[in-house]
Amino acid sequence: MDPIEIGLAVTGFLFVTVLLGMRVGFAAALAGLVGLIWIFWSKKGYDAEAFGWALTVAVKTAGQVPHSKVASQALSLIPTFILIGYLAYYAGLTRALFDAAKKWFGWLPGGLAVSTVFATAGFAAVSGAS
User: Fold this and answer.
1) Among 6, 5, 7, 26, which residue's Cα sits nearest to residue 17?
2) Spatial CB neighbours of 13, under 8 Å, sequence gap ≥ 6
3) Which residues of 54-91 are buried (b: 16+ CB within 10 A; e: fewer)?
4) pLDDT tens over the chain, length 130 residues
5) Domain boundaries, the chain
6) What 8-state DSSP symbol labels residue 73?
């Protein structure tokens, strides 16, 4: 089988495990590991002795790839922006910005949408998040 057919079969396996009640994260991890083992084993011609090699390579790949994808510095800023949002909410800044925007622009047609856009622009100006 080529990797596309293996991918389709593993996707079907993923859907079946989710429908049987397995949590999506665990089902995706299991399907990914099964797919990697299957692909590496197919490269060795489904030899019974090569299954151990395929299992070893798949486990090493499954351990390294997720870490390399999330270990970038850009993703470390996401918790910072979430913290800024929480601080702004509990300080009352978000409500004050929306109330001010509602008083200024609420009379316009579509005033709720316009007020929301201007409140968001005010939050972006205060927090530095655009």
Assistant:
1) 26
2) 31, 34
3) beebbeebeeeeeeeeeeeeeeeeeeeeeebeeebeee
4) 888 899 999 999 999 999 999 999 999 999 999 999 999 999 988 888 899 999 999 998 888 777 777 777 777 777 888 888 888 889 988 888 888 888 998 888 988 898 889 888 888 887 776 5
5) 3-71, 75-127
6) S
